[in-house]
Automatic annotation (TrEMBL):
Region (Disordered) location: 150-169
Family the UniProt entry places it in: Belongs to the AHA1 family.
Organism listed in the record: Streptomyces malaysiensis subsp. samsunensis
Listed name of the protein: Metalloregulator ArsR/SmtB family transcription factor
MF-aspect GO terms: DNA-binding transcription factor activity
Highest rank taxon of the organism: Bacteria
Record Pfam families: AHSA1 (PF08327), HTH_20 (PF12840)
Coiled-coil regions listed: none
């Protein structure tokens, strides 16, 4: 077992095992081409793997073919993983796979990015994005949450009804520089992937660069709609922070 751990401790030897897993029964020359290393160096690494019984060889004429032997790896799993952590690791692996699938799905959906510069500080911009009363002034909706990771948030109407036109969850919260939330309609299908909005707040001297990224949009039509909405809301936000008052006319009502 010590020889196995020693063999696995080297990145090049792990790479050799990966290559044999992809295509078993390779010659030394074939492995060298994949590794871009000399035959002497590859031979030394393969000798360590053979000593650990992780690689076995078979002669075919003048060639020597190298094969992956998974038995020692299975013994490690049985001794060090299965009896202690298998159920928990299986659950973690499932969560990881689901997260990767979600990221792949999001990568295929439209994304909108908007950058605006505001004469302010990151603390003031963060406060304007997360304070319920201030959001009501420039957004026409009140954003309600405690803004802790995992907490829900609601985009509530300001008519006193408490009706939310958008809901979501706080994914990241690092005041005063980064806030990430999911966005969805209150009646959205629970199985559907919500869109995600990231606020990046970066200071540049006496001004702040606010970058809003809206990901995982349903289609180009939704991207066009949110593009107009963000431009209006962020312009109103800039006016409120810099002058103390939002724009004299609600920008989302201006005909395009």
């Amino acid at each position: 077992m010590d020889k196995v751990f020693k063999a696995l401790a080297d990145q090049t030897r792990r790479y050799l095992l990966d290559r044999l897993h992809e295509h078993n029964g390779q010659t030394l020359g074939e492995l060298c081409r994949r590794l871009e290393m000399t035959r002497q160096s590859a031979t030394q690494h393969l000798a360590v793997l053979e000593a650990a019984n992780l690689v076995s060889t078979v002669r075919r004429g003048r060639e020597k073919l190298h094969y992956l032997n998974p038995v020692p790896l299975n013994e490690i799993q049985e001794r060090w993983i299965d009896k202690f952590e298998r159920p928990r690791l299986r659950a973690l692996s499932l969560v990881k796979q689901q997260a990767e699938k979600a990221e792949e799905a999001m990568a295929d959906k439209p994304t909108f990015v908007y950058v605006i510069y505001i004469e302010s500080t990151p603390e003031k911009v963060w406060h304007a994005l997360t304070d319920a009363d201030l959001t009501a002034e420039y957004w026409g909706h009140t954003n309600v949450s405690d803004w802790q990771v995992g907490s829900p948030w609601e985009h509530q109407r300001t008519d006193g009804s408490g009706t939310a036109d958008a809901v979501g969850t706080v994914v990241e919260s690092s005041p005063p520089t980064r806030l990430v939330t999911t966005w969805a309609a209150p009646d959205a299908d629970a199985a559907a992937q919500p869109s995600r909005v990231t606020f990046d707040i970066q200071p540049h001297g006496d001004i702040v660069r606010l970058t809003v990224t809206h990901e995982n949009l349903a289609d180009e039509a939704e991207r066009t709609a949110v593009a107009g909405g963000w431009a209006a809301v962020l312009s109103n936000l800039k006016s409120l922070i810099e002058t103390g008052s939002p724009l004299p006319q609600q920008p989302w009502l201006v005909p395009r």
